[in-house]
Design brief:
Elements (H helix, E strand, L loop, with lengths): L2 H10 L3 H4 L5 H9 L9 E6 L4 H14 L4 E4 L11 E3 L2 E2 L2 H20 L9 H16 L3 E5 L16 E4 L7 H4 L3 H8 L9 E3 L4 H14 L3 E3 L4 E8 L2 E7 L3 E6 L5 H15 L4 H10 L7 E4 L4 E4 L4 H14 L5 E5 L7 H8 L5 E4 L14 H4 L5 E4 L3 H8 L5 E5 L2 H15 L8
Parallel strand pairs: 1-5, 1-6, 2-5, 6-7, 7-8, 13-17, 14-15, 14-17, 15-16
Antiparallel strand pairs: 2-3, 3-4, 9-10, 10-11, 12-13
Length: about 425
């Protein structure tokens, strides 16, 4: 079987949120059939949260790798290639290793289905998560940074007993599955906390923090707060930030990930890394080298094209803050497409007033919102509004008039844009895909 065949099969499993089973029984049965690869050797850093968990994971992994550990990194979603989800030592899994993991997991699933040991085929995310555990065990990585997909308590990754559990800032997202209050969402995220294992909490809304701290008390586990690290000598620009984190020691930081929200993500990562006894020198080097595509990622210069997967209200606020801080006084364009199940109006109300021009489109996804449905939201301000039938057409329209362009609204938008730019412009200066 070829890599492309495995991807077609996985995509054929259907829309994740429609077919996922909201308990861990099927996942545990599958992993038992595979010989419990998640219990073999590797240590885990398990990370949940609404926003910032991917960036925080990337910072932790980069620093662990530069400290000399053989690392694994499991994240979602991918932007262009599913292999982005399973990373060894900073590099995506090879096609051959992916196929081997897929065949092992598929064979186990087929046996379980034949024996009626499970009530249906595992979802895309469950299957790929099992593949990741198989691949990490096979490669004998020393420590894996494991990002939850959705929620925490019933997420398919929540079968590990981690070295440390990390919870990044909690906000509204996926309310249909996690609950309509911050407290209910926080309770789902707190599901990754484990007795006997320490936790790290990012700065939280008070209602979220109460839930997290109460759960930590119930489990009698120690908690490190990111707020224990004081930020001094802060300098920010369009390309990142420099500052010093001070607690019992001082760690100078150069963060190449733009946006004020990355300061909190950095504090959370540093609190986690020091809990793991990673030396300050490795932390500094790891943070300086970190990359996290699709989050305020500048993929073209003069004029700039910046990709940001601001798909929920908190993400939109962070992007809006960045635009106001570093692009005040100059016109910007927003190319926007979103999924139907997101808080679209709240996101657009935050972003659209900042734009001189708005191009509405939709990624090639069945859940994508028809851009015509966004037109009324976009025309309420003074921006020029255009509608494009595809991401490719939207990029062509944006090329007519040079202007700083933010492509946002969905990570699917970001992934499709990266693929378009890589195919069309990969040999041009300024493209860094």
């Amino acid at each position: 079987m070829k890599y492309a065949d495995t991807v077609r099969f996985l995509y054929s499993l259907g829309h994740e949120l429609k077919v996922v089973k909201w308990d861990l029984e099927r996942m545990r049965i599958l992993l038992t059939a595979l010989g419990e690869p998640h219990l073999r050797g590797t240590r885990f850093v398990h990370v949940a949260g609404t926003n910032g968990k991917g960036s925080t994971c990337a910072m932790i992994e980069s620093s662990l790798r530069l400290a000399g550990f053989r690392t694994g990194f499991y994240s979602s979603p991918h932007l262009v290639d599913p292999r982005e989800r399973i990373v060894f030592d900073g590099r995506p899994i090879s096609e051959d290793a992916w196929v081997q993991a897929f065949l092992a997991v598929r064979a186990a699933i087929e046996r379980l289905l034949a024996d009626e040991a499970i009530d249906g085929h595992p979802s895309f995310f469950e299957t790929v998560t099992a593949m990741a555990f198989v691949a990490f065990a096979q490669a004998q990585v020393e420590i894996t940074v494991l990002e939850t997909g959705l929620g925490g308590r019933l997420d398919a990754t929540n079968v590990v007993n981690p070295e440390v559990a990390v919870i990044t800032p909690i906000d509204f997202d996926h309310e249909a599955f996690l609950g309509s209050s911050i407290e209910s969402i926080a309770a789902e995220k707190a599901g990754i906390l484990k007795a006997g294992r320490p936790a790290v909490f990012a700065a939280q809304r008070p209602d979220a923090l109460r839930v997290l701290e109460n759960r930590a008390l119930e489990l009698d586990i120690p908690v490190a707060q990111s707020s224990a690290w004081r930020v001094e000598n802060l300098v920010q620009d369009r390309y990142g930030s420099r500052f010093t984190l001070v607690s019992d020691e001082a760690i100078p930081v150069e963060c190449p990930l733009p946006g004020a929200h990355q300061i909190e993500n950095t504090r959370t990562a540093v609190a986690t890394l020091r809990l793991l006894d990673v030396p300050a020198a490795a932390i500094r080097a790891g943070l300086a080298a970190v990359r996290w595509p699709g989050r305020l990622e500048r993929v073209q210069v003069n004029p700039d094209i910046i990709l940001d997967g601001a798909h929920n209200p908190a993400g939109a606020r962070a992007l809006a803050d960045y635009i106001r801080e570093f692009y005040a006084g100059e016109p910007v364009r927003i190319v926007f497409g979103a999924m139907r199940d997101k808080a679209v109006e709240e996101v657009t109300n935050t972003l659209f007033p900042l734009a001189a021009e708005i191009i509405l489109t939709a990624p090639d996804q069945p859940r994508a919102l028809n851009p015509q449905a966004l037109a009324e939201l976009a025309t309420q301000g003074g921006a020029t509004v255009r509608v494009a039938d595809s991401v490719h057409e939207a990029l062509a329209l944006s090329a007519v008039t040079p202007m700083t362009t933010f492509v946002t609204g969905s990570l699917f938008m970001v992934g499709e844009t990266r693929a378009c730019l890589a195919g069309k412009n990969s040999s041009q200066p300024g493209i860094k895909l």
